[in-house]
Amino acid sequence: EKKNPGEGDFVQAMGEIVESVWDWLKSDDGKPYLEANILSRFVEPERVVMFRVVWQDDDGATRVNRGYRVQFNSACGPYKGGLRFHPSVTLDILKFLGAEQVLKNRLTGLPIGGGKGGSDFNPKGKSDNEVMRFCQAFMTEMFRHIGPNTDVPAGDIGVAGREVGFLFGMYKKLHNRFEGILTGKPALLGGSNLRPEATGYGVVYFADAILRQAQSEDSGDESPLKGLTVAASGSGNVAIYLTQKLIELGAKVVTLSDSSGSIYDKEGIDDDKLEFIMDLKLNRRGRMSEYADKYDGVEYMEGERPWSVKCDIAFPCATQNELEKEDAEKLVENGVKCVCEGANMPSTPEAIEVFQSKKVLFGPAKAANAGGVGVSALEMSQNSMRLSWSREEVDEKLHSIMKSIHETCVENGKVDGEDHVDYVKGANLGAFRQVAEAMYQQGAV
Ligand code: NDP
């Protein structure tokens, strides 16, 4: 805390990681890494770049934002992690996200390190031209620090295909190279099939694996999610494709939300309603309240989160710290069996404590939402080979990545003498051990 003043989110995330790996570091197995000071090295980002972004709005006024790239750890491959454009972006948040990303990326088993970046720029209410000028200005600095073998950013909150396209165009102009320096690109620019869907689908595959692990009998081809009632938050990229996959598997999604409030649709969101949400949120960037206006019997909870409703399983998919202790207690009271994180660090430590003490199955973000970066790494491979895999091929690979992450969590998180799996410990320890070994093998650098 003394070394990182005012960086509460970063300290919180690091505290959780240290707690999961400390016993192992003190064991005979972990001692060499403790003695080599791997933990002290791990908590220090390898490099942080902060820069001024100057651009002009449609009225010709000059605007100034701050840009960042946190290159956290490259022990296992080029830095990899999204760019976030949101007014809440600070160095603290990007450092916490960068650290999480290092472990998440390791869990995928693919050769990538971890980083995160972005800006306090708010794309909301900006015209396409303003967003383009901002992205171009951002890239005029960031191009110096990235490359296919150095650092390959992607999208995150506020950065999707449109922004990635503008960023890519400016990089190409500056470097005169058409190369895979960003993932999450539109298909014509070398984007992978299924990248937009990957995080949401991956969360569902992970939840499916958790429920199967907890079952006494294998349900075979039928997903244990079938027939379950789901409360999800958010209505962006992650929440939308999560809902799509859940509908396909026969679950009933009754809530979604945005930063203005939540909808509660007891009948459940079906394919037609989801199509409306896709147009509303992904194309028109509108408010979820429009959904409540359009469909009968839908309750709109203004300014509220969706955690007060009855559900079997909850998927927080909006933003960090959106599920607090009281929300967790309410969910438990309403009989929730499993909580799986689609967003990064959406549950506070106190909320996680509630779930774990009540033996609610809990899938932490760095394991559950790793499908997005997994497919991003597949996009890097496709770009290097200059070919494109089909949707089905990518989906199959995504499914097997999520199953393998689940296995790593079980191996490292099984509670002695119990059937219960501590997925938080399993994900942290399973990933950290590998990153520690890769750092160790590279000597004291
Ligand atoms: P989007 O920008 O597409 O959507 C974010 C959603 O969360 C929107 O519905 C937004 O509402 C809502 N939201 C944002 N801030 C708040 C807030 N303070 N309170 C309530 N709701 C809020 O982002 P993504 O869906 O891509 O990302 C969601 C989360 O998933 C983030 O934590 C991200 O880091 C994480 N993630 C995303 C990955 C990806 O592949 N996209 C990969 C791994 C993790 P509004 O429309 O009002 O802004």
TrEMBL record:
Establish whether keyword Transmembrane is in the entry: no
Asked whether the keyword Oxidoreductase is assigned, the reply is: yes
Q: Which UniProt keywords apply?
A: Oxidoreductase
GO CC annotations, alphabetized: cytosol
Q: Where is the Glutamate/phenylalanine/leucine/valine/L-tryptophan dehydrogenase C-terminal domain?
A: 192-443
Instruction: Give the enzyme's EC designation.
Output: 1.4.1.4
- Provide the leader sequence positions: none
Q: Which GO terms describe its molecular function?
A: glutamate dehydrogenase (NADP+) activity
Family in the record = Belongs to the Glu/Leu/Phe/Val dehydrogenases family.
Can you say what this protein is called? glutamate dehydrogenase (NADP(+))
Organism listed in the record: Hondaea fermentalgiana
Q: Please spell out the taxonomic lineage of the organism that makes this protein.
A: Eukaryota, Sar, Stramenopiles, Bigyra, Labyrinthulomycetes
